[in-house]
Give the backbone structure.
Amino acid sequence: MTTNFVSAAELMAKVLGMPGYDFAIIDHPVSSATDAGLRERAIAALKQGSAMLLR
Amino acid sequence: MQLASRTYEADSIASVQELYHSNGWTDGLPIVPPTEDAVRACLERVMMTPDQLIGIEPVRELPITAEKLAINAVMAGCLPMHFPVVVTAWMAMMREEFLMHGATASTGGCAVLVVINGPIREEIGALGSFNALGNSDRGTAVIGRAIRLCLINLMDVRPGAIDRSTLGHPGKYSYCVAEDEDDLAWTTLAEQRGLPREASAVTVMAAGAPRQIMNEWTTKPEEILETFAAEMRANLRHYSIHPGNYALIIPKQLREHLQAAKWSKSDIAAFIHERARIHRREWADVGKGNVVRDRGDSVYPAMQSADQLLVIGAGGPAGGFGAVIPPWLGDKSYAVTLPIGACVDCEPPPSVKGSVR
């Protein structure tokens, strides 16, 4: 999830009966990011995802 | 008829308005108080019980009942005679191919365009003439508004909540048009989409704002339609390359030129399908060169097939104007047409591939 959509994701998790559902958060926007920026976002998502899975 | 919704007491019309506004139950405009009598009258009109299930929203599995639709329809200003259109529009919106959640939550900011066909137009005084895409008549105004209020109150489609629109457009207050069938030598939109002309019908489409065109300097169908196609090409360049349902609104003056030349709606759709397409490299002309890559020669039509074009005769009698209404996001959401007054427990009408959705 990008930073600008965090509140939307939290709301959807709540209305779907899963409040507090965890997700990785990366910088917004993705569509105009450079290759380097995309790499940074991918690494950030990987780290956060790993932390969730290995908790 | 026992209603299930909670009731509120208010001692003045002003306090009613504040109650609704302070709870976020409006679109910002004043509402008509949904009294029990008014709600019951709507339900009686469609012969539905309050708990009649209109459908279940697929993403959140929210049941939508007739009572809740009726409350919001009354709030929007609907009379009982308008309610069958609201109910049918909602049934159409809940069809899977419409993708209601995506279409109403997206940053793209589309609205639900409702097109009315058939005898019910005359019953509610929605004739699709002067100012057809604006405040043309009471019926289309309140029906379009009812759709939005239902989304707000039944689906939490509020700006910043489920509705993530960056800009939206004025059609999100009300976006409803009746086809001008009284003056239509063509098949109606509903006929195009597989229904008999004598049936009243509703078509819903996840739609961007109308883009107006003008060409008063020719009577040749190819030249008139080239102007529409140019606007569609502009949309493909400036907005979205995804193909899908586009709608053309063709008022009487341009319609007469097309009809005099014996062009049918199918002829129009075939021509537009051929002309409304761009090369991917054209994106570089409008600042989107980064996504052209090595596919510059690829051709992108506005529609996957000619029958995705919704050709609608509507508008005042004078003026060489027309409008292109683009889709929200191409083929992610398909327009849906349903007859009004069909049994809600019956199977939906058979689909014609690529036509009736």
Q: What stands out?
A: Chain A has a mean pLDDT of 91. DSSP finds two helices and no strands in chain A. The first helix of chain A runs from residue 6 to 15. The CA atoms of residues 24 and 48 of chain A lie 5 Å apart.
